[in-house]
Amino acid sequence: MIGDYYRYVAESAGEDKIEQVKSGALKGYEEADKLSKGLNACNPIRLGLALNYSVFYYEVMNDHKKACEFGEKALSEALEKIDDVDEETFRDAKSIIELLKENLSLWKEEEGENNVEDL
Questions:
Q1: Which residues, including other chains, have CB under 8 Å from residue 79's CB and lie 6 or more apart?
Q2: Which of 70, 82, 84 is nearest to 29 (CA)?
Q3: Is the C or the N end of the chain the one with fewer CB within 10 Å?
Q4: Within 10 A of 32 (CB to CB), how many other CB atoms are there?
Q5: pLDDT 10s digit of each residue in the chain, 119 long?
Q6: Residue 58 near residue 96 (C-beta atoms within 8 A)
């Protein structure tokens, strides 16, 4: 949530504050990413973090390549484990997976690359 807070602030920060809030968001996301590695790849919290972190790279850091790499990694890891989760986790994970796929498709389309395959 710390990363998200700073990301939202960064989206409207002035030139005098932008580097500070970018740094705060990056630190928050990095710490959350480390902590989330103990969760199943389909865990909705881990997937939601991956979704928000990739959006941060795309929109705030303007690092489209890193955003796509991060999103694709999370998507790939989740799809590998999707058959091993219970029904409730599957439903929650599926909706976040769809959001990740939509973002990746849009981003790749903007970059002139191929779309992400369907689930």
A1: 97, 119
A2: 70
A3: N
A4: 19
A5: 889 999 999 888 999 999 999 999 999 999 999 999 999 999 999 999 999 999 999 999 999 999 999 999 999 999 999 999 999 999 999 999 999 999 999 999 988 865 555 44
A6: no
> Do the Cβ atoms of 78 and 107 come closer than 8 Å?
no
User: Tokens standing for 35?
Assistant: 């902590």
Place of tokens 């990739």: 54
Name residue 31's amino acid.
E
CA dist 37 → 8, 31, 34 (Å): 24, 10, 6
The pTM score is: 0.87
Residues 58, 110: contact at Cβ < 8 Å? no
Residue 115 CB partners (closer than 8 Å, separation 6+): 105, 108, 109
- Tokens 């790939």 correspond to 76
> Looking at this protein, which amino acid is placed at residue 82?
I
Task: Compute the C-alpha angle 19/47/91, nearest 5°.
Answer: 150
